Amino acid sequence: MTRSARLTVVFDIAIILVFALFLWAPWDRAADASSSLNMIWLALPVVLSRHGFHLEYATITVTICALTAAAFGALLSIAAHIRGSAALWAVGTGLFGASVAILMLPWTAVGFLGALLLLLGLRARFVAVPLVTVPVAFISELWPLGYAAGFAVLAWRYNPQLLIKALMVAFGVSLIARAMMPSRSEVSATANTRSLH
Domain coordinates of the chain in residue numbers? Predict the structure, then answer.
């Protein structure tokens, strides 16, 4: 395994651990402040309604903005794999993280986004994103894609726990898909065999 591949694994595991830690947020549970009504997604429309927005309009606007961030983030990450751009991948993953952060309490979301942006900046600086084909790019980004699809379907029920479950299911599916994906050495060996014939 090359140094770049090892760094990729280390950064990817660190990013996943940041998602898991801040979604679990034991400090919120200890403070007994984990009421879903305090989550940014449900609290922000109430704050906006106190400043003149109609509550229903504010709720729909916040939900559509979060859905847009999730979908656009997934598409940017796919494009980053196709173009081999580490910076574009970091932006896409950052948008994906922002769409997940709305499921957290405000101070937890700030800490999460700070930790995530630090890791993404370091990963973009030290790890290159290899050029891949379009199908491989889609498989590589099944987690944000699956979350965006789940958000589009389930967000209108306004149940944060459902969205967290959709995030976990999308992550599980992405792990299975990545495990079934052929390794780079197998792909290059197949390409070399074809070129010889």
Answer: 3-182
